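Project outcomes to date are best conveyed with an example. Our students and postdoctoral researchers have been running inverse folding experiments weekly, and each run begins with a structure described purely in tokens. The record below, which covers 532 residues, was selected by the lab manager from last quarter's runs and is presented without edits.
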């Protein structure tokens, strides 16, 4: 016996599920979002992780969220506000540092400490990244063309893409292909001479990747992070006042205002199917909710293999999804600090430009290879590469007491499976102690100001957000898992082999990150199919 009936059930209340809910409710459909946690938002949530200290729990910087979606969902009127984070700071262990700001003369002098040619090379390189990123970002808002059997719109999309590539000059076309299928190592060595700038570019590959710099196709992740913008500036990043949860709270409020129903603490156990047609879902507590359309915000493996089940899928499709690569080797920490971190490599009291920065702790290009190999062997590195921000220097809503701070750390690469059968729950404290000791080499007052910490291991990321193997992007961003193949040629346009089952999460084109694009594109596909 069914408890309720809807036009569309959205399985999962991550930011993409909420985006889809908004577009579908706006079109007049009866929409219900089912979220397993007590709060919506998926990986874009804010939490008080220690009394008096709030922070984005997982995802921590914004750039990819599309302006069209912000406007369509009227997110600003529901409290969404960004703060730009224009600086990048690369502290060194040898007393040197690199601080890049919006001031080009300053940057020239900073890079000049390491090389006489790398400043100009970096400008040229960024120009290419912008050009190529610009093309990629244009195709984010359309479904990727079908690999075969497409209709007129697929042909038009393919022609448009071909035309944009054709318009590039020969050099830019060469670079585009290098970015799409080349290895970062080649790109880095082609452009730069100093170890410092090589490390900077290597670090660009890192947040979404789990790959060696020598792996063909691993450069794509660098582009994926270049297509965003803040305040109209391409490639810029920022933070959200009040943390990333403010995005999803605004999305939820906007969806509710349009008539969508949102149910939290509602874990879906099974997607119900009869004669290859979706019937609805069954919750863990036994409730059955009916709908002819289910849009899954969950990742492809969870959606198809766990919530649906292989027996409802074509054999080849199920085999391909089983082989879809998921793992990003990410460990996330939030630090509650009694005072401001002071860096060994930079003099000065109080908040400086280096605090208002993304801060990347990478020793050199080889550092990435070392942590990658260690992770592949199942050993968490004692000296991980860390990307950090101190959002409280820009946003005092995150702390109760002036002078205290929160710091976000993304530590890479940290394996999901540990060697010798060790378990993350047993290892976590020891791994955290090593990370903090390493960080203290750069920030000598760290142990004095540390009040408390929160750590999400790859296993925690899977447990808390339902991201298979802790993959923060719902599947690796590598060429065979992108565009018309994400997550599979028969599901890349958001519809799946099961009639009425759609994908609306980061496992669909264009992939992970807080963009809202898979949710928006999936909603458009559903609305188009309903018009047929
Ligand atoms: C540690 C970390 C750091 C990151 N940093 C950044 C960053 O700084 N910037 C950026 O742009 N991106 C970042 N990302 C990536 C980005 O946050 C994600 O790609 C994005 O949030 C995924 O959104 P989504 O809506 O597709 O899926 P999710 O956020 O994964 O949402 C899926 C939802 O489905 C729910 N769910 C799962 N199973 C069920 C079920 N059976 N029944 C009901 N509900 C279910 C989950 O609880 C979750 O709420 C980060 C991610 C992580 C984890």
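After processing, the design step wrote out the following sequence:
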């Amino acid at each position: 016996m069914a408890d309720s009936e809807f036009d569309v059930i959205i399985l999962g209340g991550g930011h993409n599920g909420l985006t889809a809910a908004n577009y579908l409710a706006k079109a007049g459909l009866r929409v219900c979002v089912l979220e397993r946690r007590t709060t919506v938002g998926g990986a874009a949530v804010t939490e008080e992780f220690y009394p008096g200290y709030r922070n984005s729990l997982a995802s921590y910087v914004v750039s990819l969220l599309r302006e069209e979606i912000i406007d369509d969902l009227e997110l600003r009127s529901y409290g969404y506000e960004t703060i730009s984070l224009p600086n990048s700071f690369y502290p060194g262990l040898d007393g040197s540092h690199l601080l890049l700001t919006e001031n080009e003369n300053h940057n020239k002098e900073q890079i000049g400490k390491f090389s006489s040619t790398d400043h100009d090379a970096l400008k040229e390189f960024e120009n290419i990244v912008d050009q190529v990123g610009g093309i990629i970002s244009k195709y984010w808002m359309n479904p990727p063309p079908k690999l075969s059997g497409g209709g007129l719109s697929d042909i038009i999309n393919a022609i448009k893409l071909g035309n944009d590539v054709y318009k590039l000059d020969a050099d830019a076309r060469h670079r585009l292909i290098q970015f799409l299928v080349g290895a970062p190592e080649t790109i880095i060595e082609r452009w730069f001479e100093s170890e410092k700038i090589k490390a900077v570019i290597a670090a660009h590959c890192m947040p979404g990747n789990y790959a060696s710099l020598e792996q063909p196709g691993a450069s794509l992740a660098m582009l994926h992070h270049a297509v965003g913008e803040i305040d109209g500036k391409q490639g810029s990043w920022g933070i959200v006042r009040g943390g990333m949860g403010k995005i999803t709270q605004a999305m939820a409020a906007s969806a509710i205002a349009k008539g969508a129903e949102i149910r939290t603490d509602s874990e879906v156990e099974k997607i119900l199917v009869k004669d290859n047609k979706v019937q609805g879902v069954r919750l863990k507590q036994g409730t059955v909710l009916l709908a002819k359309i289910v849009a899954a915000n969950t990742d492809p493996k969870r959606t198809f293999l766990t919530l649906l089940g292989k027996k409802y899928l074509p054999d080849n499709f199920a085999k391909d999804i089983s082989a879809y690569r998921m793992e990003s080797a990410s460990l996330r920490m939030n630090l509650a600090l009694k005072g401001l971190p002071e860096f060994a490599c930079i003099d000065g009291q109080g908040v400086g430009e280096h605090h208002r920065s993304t801060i990347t702790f990478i020793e050199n290009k080889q550092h990435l290879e070392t942590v990658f190999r260690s992770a592949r062997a199942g050993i968490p590195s004692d000296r991980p590469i860390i990307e950090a921000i101190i959002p409280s220097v820009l946003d005092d809503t995150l702390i109760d007491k002036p002078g205290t701070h929160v710091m976000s750390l993304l530590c890479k690469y940290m394996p999901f499976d540990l060697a010798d059968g060790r378990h993350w729950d047993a290892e976590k404290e020891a791994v955290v102690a090593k990370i903090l000791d390493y960080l203290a080499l750069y920030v000598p007052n760290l142990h004095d100001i540390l009040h408390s910490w929160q750590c999400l291991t790859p296993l925690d990321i899977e447990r808390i957000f339902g991201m298979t193997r802790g993959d923060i992007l719902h599947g690796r961003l590598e060429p065979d898992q992108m565009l018309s193949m994400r997550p599979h040629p028969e599901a890349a346009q958001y519809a799946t082999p099961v009639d009425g089952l759609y994908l609306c999460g980061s496992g669909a084109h264009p992939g992970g990150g807080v963009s809202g694009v898979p949710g928006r594109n999936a909603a458009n596909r559903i609305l188009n199919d309903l018009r047929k």
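DSSP finds 17 helices and 20 strands in the chain. Residues 8-43+65-81+243-326+469-531 form a domain with the FAD/NAD(P)-binding domain fold (CATH 3.50.50.60). The training component of this project remains on track.
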